[in-house]
Amino acid sequence: MSTPVVSPHADAPAIGDTRLLIDGDRVDAAEGATFDVFNPATGELLAKVAEARAEDVDRAVKAARRAFESGPWRDMKPAERARVIWKLGDLLLENAAELGGLETLDNGKPFLQAKGGDVPAAAGLFHYMSGWATKLEGSTIPISFPGTFHTYTKREALGVVGLIVPWNFPLTIAAWKVAPALAAGNTIVLKPSEVTPLTALRLGELALEAGIPEGVLNVVPGFGADAGAALTAHPDVDKVSFTGSTTTGRTIMRAAEGNIKKLTLELGGKSPDIIFGDANLEAAIQGASDGIFYNQGEACAAGSRIYAHRSVYDEVVAGLSKAAEAIKVGDGFDPDSFIGPLVSKQHHEKVTGYVDLGREEGTVASGGTYAKDGGYFVTPTVFTNVTDESRVVREEIFGPVVSVLPFDDTDEVIRRANDTRYGLTAGVWTESMSTAHKMADALKAGTVWVNCYGVFDAAMPFGGYKESGWGREMGGIVLDDYTESKTVCIKVGD
Ligand code: NAD
After folding, report:
1. Could you give the 3-state DSSP secondary structure of residue 155?
2. Cα–Cα distance between 470 and 412 in angstroms, integer?
3. For residue 47, what are the β-bridge partners?
């Protein structure tokens, strides 16, 4: 039996039911298995959560298939579907303190950021996508084939979609996928990360409360190699949308081959953030600091390679170091904490390994320290005297660690910024309109922010070039990835 263990903070929410959600019911895993979830601020056990394995995933897929084919969701009038999805957005906002608290317990991120950032962002997805339920239109097509035809396209739901999400924005990234999947009339099996399963389970409960029919949204926490692999290989799943590491993305591509599943892959990043000599330096330094240190640096879009023009390089390094030193690292429930613990012991080991490596490869301008026991804390760390070939500059660290490199001219920085296997996001700081446009054109990244960083909105498509992935999340464009286009050609005369 899966049971919550303890809520370690007086003001933290109760953890609630940690069983699977299949076909509208809370159920134990078929084999009765559970896994442990830890509080990263203390390293202590937080909850025991039902562990879905292949048999449970199969049960969830069958429930989703029944719910799809029997049609209560797919065939619901679009305006009614829109109302229900909007209601789910409202319910997230009404429960923002609880959801934010669960995210802090599970992931470690500061409560104020979770409650004031992650939850409204997730709610915004449901509100925005609800509008698309009534706007999934096709077109009429004049064709030149001999004869007279009425030819048109229509958009249909895909069927059962498997959604696999990571631990860094557990609720928000689930919403990126669940909201458009629902708007298009699909049914869902959602597999949260084994590290942070709690908000996904609560999202499933709130979906039922909003009026989403049983079996439409099933939630199966479990491990990637077991539940995740079973979902990606399942012959009755029509599409998988995955966010996570590039390595796992490759495994998923292979696993999806069996029934040629449609795939969306949102993968890793090593994003450049470029500060030109004419930039508003105060804004650029603060923006670059937030761009790397927000969410403990555990962000695919983190601006982890800062290129500063040589004329302002020293000022940028000094300003960034000062900003890093001003950041309070601590328990996420402390309202002064801007950075909480990293998500897990394993991830802490990975990030601190890079902190140690960066010391050898370059110079620590700020930070470089980390907790050795207890919670998984790392201070925001700034490296200088590294090169484009340093591993800390080339590899995704996924923690509060940044390298600052000087550059001399625009073409040089374009070449160096693009010299990476990733292509997720990029930042540019300049007061010159022509530099802004030139950079926006030249950078090989799915999103380019100019004089800002980390602006996300449900209406803005997000995704990667190169090994950062396939497809886009958010914006109207994402609906293409959750629908089939059907062409109908009717002969109406000779
Ligand atoms: P991960 O790849 O280890 O895990 C992500 C999810 O995939 C988890 O739910 C995990 O259980 C599951 N999984 C693992 N192996 C699997 C398998 N063989 N088959 C199916 N599912 C499997 O990633 P993570 O450590 O949770 O997250 C960090 C990574 O995610 C970073 O590389 C980061 O850049 C990336 N990320 C990308 C975006 C984006 O939008 N591009 C957003 C957030 C995170």
Report:
1. strand
2. 28
3. 4, 37
Q: How far apart are the first and last CA of the chain?
A: 68
Residue 155 token pair: 């958009």
> Is the distance from the beta carbon of residue 266 to the nearest atom of ligand 1 less than 6 Å?
yes
Cα 23 to ligand 1 centre (Å): 26
Question: Residue 79, exposed/middle/buried by CB under 10 A (0-12, 13-18, 19+)?
Answer: exposed
Split the chain (494 residues) into runs of 10 and give each run's mean pLDDT: 51 92 98 96 95 98 98 94 98 98 97 98 98 98 98 98 98 98 98 98 98 98 98 98 96 95 97 98 98 98 98 98 97 95 97 98 96 90 98 98 98 98 98 98 98 98 97 98 98 95
User: How many CA atoms are closer than 13 Å to the CA of 9, on its beta-carbon side?
Assistant: 20
Alpha carbons 13 and 8: distance in angstroms, whole number: 10
Q: How far is CA 222 from CA 191, 280, 346, in A?
A: 7, 47, 17
3-state helix, strand, coil in the chain (%, to 5): 40, 20, 40
Structure tokens at 236: 């009755």
- Calculate the alpha carbon distances from 336 to 98, 327, 331, 339, 406 in Å: 19, 9, 9, 9, 33
Say whether 396 is catalytic.
no
Q: What distance in Å separates the CA atoms of residue 222 and residue 317, rounded to the nearest whole number?
A: 42
Strands (DSSP E) found in 250-372: 262-266, 272-275, 305-309, 363-366
SS3 of 186-226: the string is CEEEEECCCCCCHHHHHHHHHHHHHCCCCCCEEECCCCHHH
Q: Are 246 and 466 in contact (CB under 8 A)?
A: no
Active site residue 300: yes
Distance 184 CA to ligand 1 centre (A): 24
Q: How many C-beta atoms surround the C-beta of residue 416 within 10 A?
A: 17
Confirm or reject: Cβ of 396 under 6 Å from ligand 1: yes
Distance 166 CA to ligand 1 centre (A): 5
Ligand 1 atom closest to 223 (CA): 11
191 lines ligand 1 (CB under 6 A): yes
- Domains, the chain, ordered by start: 20-267+469-486 (3.40.605.10), 272-456 (3.40.309.10)
Strand partners, 485: 155
Does 170 sit in the ligand 1 pocket, CB within 6 Å? no
**pTM score:** 0.97
Catalytic residue of the set 266, 361, 467, 473 = 266
For ligand 1, say whether the CB of 228 is within 6 Å of any of its atoms: yes
- Asked if 440 and 428 count as a contact pair (C-beta separation under 8 A), the reply is yes
